[in-house]
Structures are given as structure tokens and as C-alpha cells.
Design a protein that fits this description.
There is one protein chain. By secondary structure, the protein is α+β, with helices and mostly antiparallel strands. The protein has a single domain (32-315), classed as Ribosomal Protein S5, domain 2, CATH 3.30.230. It is 32% helix and 20% strand. The protein contains nine helices and eight strands. It has helices spanning 5-10, 14-29, 105-117, 141-157, 163-178, 185-192, 239-251, 258-263, 270-279; strands at residues 35-46, 56-72, 77-82, 87-92, 125-131, 197-202, 207-213, 313-315. Strands 1, 2, 3, 4, 5, 6, 7 and 8 form an eight-stranded mixed β-sheet that branches. Strand 6 (197-202) and strand 7 (207-213) form a beta hairpin.
């Protein structure tokens, strides 16, 4: 069988991986893919579960990523095959319903349904998905497929989104269609990640700043062999409520968010803060992130206390001197 996930995972370079994914596309759909999209997984360095409490997050895109090879169709049918799971899905973008108990189909369907709700032009497509982001490992395999798929439909539809808005729409798909009440951490990491840098995100206003990582620092991701299952409305759905309750107990009558608590800004208007992390929409514009279209997505600036606008923050080993720039 040409469509082998194990062979793709063993590929030593992107060219070999691309040939295997293209071979799978030919096997499943006949013909060649017309466009490719990618999105990385992520690891959170600091700030896990603070995103939906409007705190700070320091996150890092990783080399493990999701690729989608796709081709336009002339109807409203969407056919998707996952090489990792050796499973497929077929639906019409004009009539989308969730699939009960599916591990991955609802992430695909949710993105398409959300883009349609936004009034964005859609087209049918055939697509093959291959990911090197481990599933249920806490490295955001779901956000990677969401953001890569949104990029596919962005190209097919002839419109463009800023990375910020794309991340928010993918978060909306996961929150409302899939039912996982995640914060914005995963999708922002995937859409705005930048090679060689971590991303410092203030979830109160969604401002970001790139954080350069010095050559002497290596990030090690360890596999605990304990699957992380969050799909659906189970345990993860209670995390935002539980975190909010704990935050209220710590604040004890002070208004605002976790970010306010950490910065000492306890008099901030909590009513305004509550809407920023979940409902804020960035303006349109921007480009398309594809394998053959450059890295894209890198954004700096924003409101991070103690730093001058326009400069990268610096993350360096203890004892190291200042980094250039």
C-alpha cells in the first residue's frame, strides 16, 4: 500500500515526506494535489491554562507539524483522508453536522463550518493530512490540523486572513463545534509562531512579542506515555470554570484578570477584560502560509510590560551576556 503513515514518519527530509504524501493523494483521489499547507504543533514553556484566565503565556512552535495536500473540486463536497489514522471523511460544506465520537473529523468539519458562518467563500476539495505531531500528547495536534485546514480553504476561496483572525476562528471551531473549551494558546502558537523564537502572549488584549531563544538553550519535550484526552465536553471543559473559580478566590474582590494580578494592576475594569480573550476579532488582511510560500505569521510588538516597542525580548541561559538586537 502506497499510503503508509509509517513510511512518511520515517522520511528523513521534507522532500521524501512530500513524495509519500503525494503518493497517498494519488492512491486515494487520483491525480496530483494542487496546493500544500502546513501548521506546527507547540509546547507551552510557561502559562499553561492561564490563556482562558487572560494571563500571560510563553509558548514555542515545534518542528513537528501537520501537512495537508489538497486539490479543488467543482462541487461542495469535501473529502479528507488522514494518513495517521488511515481513516477518511466525506461531507458537504453546505450541510455540516458533527460526527459523534470522532477523534478528528469534528476538527475538520468545525473549521469549515466556522468559515462558512463568517460568510467566507468556500470550495469543495480533496485533501490528505499527514502529521508528525503526536496525537493526545499535549502538543496541539488539533490546533495544527485546524490552522493548516483554514489555510487550505483560504487559498481555495481566494481571500486572506491575518494570522490573528485565523487563530481566533480556529479557536471558535474547537470551542463551539467540537466542544473543547480551550483558550487561544494553541491556535495563536500555530498561526503566529516564528522560527528560533518563543511567543509571549498577553491574553487580556492578545498582544504578542517574539522572544528570541539563545543558541545555548535547548527545549526538551518528554513523553510521559500518558495520553491526553480532551476531545468533547469532558474534563477539559471544566478547566476554564475551575481556573476562574481559583482566580476569583485569589483575587478576593479585586477586579480583573490573572494578568492584572501578576502585574499588580488590580483596578483594571474586569468587565472589559473578560471579553478580550475570547471575542476579540483582528482586522482582515495578511497572507497565506504554505509550504512553498514562506514561513509567514511572525508578528512582534504589542503590550508587554517593561519592554520597549519594536524590540525582541531575549531568553538566554544563566550567566550569558546580552544577545544582539
Amino acid at each position: 500500500m502506497l499510503c503508509s503513515m509509517q513510511d512518511a514518519d520515517r522520511a528523513q527530509d521534507s522532500g521524501a515526506r512530500a513524495r509519500l504524501v503525494a503518493a497517498c493523494f494519488r492512491e486515494k483521489f487520483t491525480g496530483e494535489p494542487e496546493l500544500w499547507a502546513r501548521a506546527p504543533g507547540r509546547v507551552d514553556l510557561m502559562g499553561s491554562h492561564t490563556d482562558y484566565n487572560l494571563g500571560f503565556v510563553l509558548t514555542l512552535p515545534i518542528a513537528r507539524d501537520t501537512w495537508i495536500a489538497a486539490r479543488r473540486r467543482d462541487d461542495d463536497t469535501v473529502r479528507v483522508h488522514s494518513m495517521n489514522l488511515d481513516e477518511g471523511d466525506r461531507f458537504r460544506w453546505s450541510d455540516i453536522a458533527p460526527v459523534p465520537g470522532s477523534r478528528w473529523r469534528n476538527y475538520v468539519r468545525g473549521v469549515v463550518a466556522t468559515l462558512r458562518e463568517e460568510g467566507l467563500a468556500l470550495a469543495g476539495c480533496d485533501a490528505v493530512v499527514h502529521s508528525t505531531v503526536p496525537i493526545e500528547a499535549g502538543l496541539s495536534s488539533s490546533a495544527a490540523i485546524e490552522c493548516a485546514l483554514a489555510t487550505v480553504f483560504e487559498s481555495l476561496g481566494g481571500w486572506s486572513l491575518t494570522p490573528e483572525r485565523k487563530a481566533l476562528l480556529c479557536q471558535k471551531a474547537e470551542n463551539e463545534f467540537v466542544g473543547v473549551k480551550c483558550g487561544i494558546l494553541d491556535q495563536y502558537s500555530s498561526c503566529l509562531g516564528r522560527r528560533g523564537c518563543a511567543l509571549l502572549l498577553d491574553c487580556r488584549d492578545l498582544s504578542t512579542r517574539a522572544v528570541r531563544i539563545a543558541d545555548g538553550i535547548r527545549v526538551v519535550v518528554c513523553n510521559t506515555m500518558s495520553p491526553r484526552r480532551v476531545a468533547g465536553r469532558g474534563a477539559h471543559g471544566g478547566r476554564p470554570a475551575g481556573g476562574g473559580a481559583a482566580l476569583r478566590a485569589v483575587l478576593r474582590g479585586r477586579t480583573g484578570s490573572l494578568r492584572n494580578l501578576l502585574s499588580g494592576d488590580g483596578d483594571h475594569d474586569g468587565g472589559n477584560a473578560r471579553g478580550a480573550g475570547r471575542d476579540r476579532r483582528a482586522p482582515g488582511g495578511g497572507g497565506i502560509r504554505r509550504l512553498h510560500g514562506g514561513s509567514g505569521g511572525g508578528r512582534t510588538g504589542g503590550r508587554v510590560p517593561g519592554r520597549r516597542p519594536g524590540r525582541l525580548c531575549q531568553l538566554r541561559p544563566r550567566g550569558a551576556g546580552n544577545l544582539p538586537g
